Amino acid sequence: MTRLLIPGALALCAATGCISDTGHPAPAFAALSVPGDVTLAWDSTYNAVDDGIGALVLLDFMVFDSDQGMPLENIRVELLSGYGGMYLIPKTAVKIVPYPTIEEDDKAALCDNNEDGYIDDDAPDSCSWNWDTSGDVYFELASDYANAYHPNYLIGATDNRGIFRAYVYVDSLPVQGGGAEEGGAEESYALVPVYANIGIDSEEVQIGPNQTGG
């Protein structure tokens, strides 16, 4: 079972009608609004790459008419992660799932019969579910992402509310400072930007720790 540290509540994505996956170029009067920076409780126990422990962060980007303030539908938005340990996940790859029926004592054996650390192909679906430890809610990632697909670029289109929703899976954060083993201060972690671009406007969201690691 993958344990996630999820800031804020995540909701099911509502149907948005038929819109292009990549949208249309933003008109000259369009502007981009991004969510506030995100801070995570983070330390060295979370920071190993591909350890199955991380944070799933929801981000909503809005495109609107800068003259009238109205949301703009089906406008192309491009996202780029500023670090290889932060992966961009489309909203279609994340969904809430029912509580698992497999007992925890049996789950490890069912998920990894070969004891090689990877989920077996014939394992139950819930082996790739993710658990929000703060809200007792289980989530499922599409198999491509659950099996270590690590995209750092995502392109999509705004819905009928002018919103482009995406998730960021924070698997690791960059270490800054020398660390105690090099005679420096305790290990700490840097903020990482997620860049958003609509062609005529660009913004960024910073994701990072609210405390030093150990």
List the helices and strands and how they pair.
Layout lengths: L1 E3 L25 E4 L4 E3 L12 E13 L10 E6 L4 E5 L3 E4 L6 H8 L17 E4 L4 E5 L1 H4 L6 E5 L5 E8 L4 E2 L11 E2 L2 E6 L4 E8 L5
Description of the molecule:
It is a single chain. The chain has 214 residues and is mainly beta. The model is unreliable at 1-20 (pLDDT under 50). It has helices at residues 104-111, 143-146; strands spanning 2-4, 30-33, 38-40, 53-65, 76-81, 86-90, 94-97, 129-132, 137-141, 153-157, 163-170, 175-176, 188-189, 192-197, 202-209.
Task: Describe the structure concisely for a colleague.
The protein is mostly beta strands. 6% of the residues lie in helices and 36% in strands.
Overall domain count:
1
Radius of gyration using CA atoms only: 19 Å
Helix content: under 10%
Counting DSSP E segments of at least 2 residues, the number of strands comes to 15
Q: pLDDT below 50 for ≥5 consecutive residues: which ranges?
A: 1-20
The backbone outline, from C-alpha atoms, is globular
What is the distance, rounded to the nearest whole angstrom, between the alpha carbons of the first and last residues?
Answer: 24 Å
| Residue-averaged pLDDT | 74
What descriptive keywords fit this protein?
214 residues; single chain; disordered N terminus; globular; mainly beta; 5-stranded mixed β-sheet
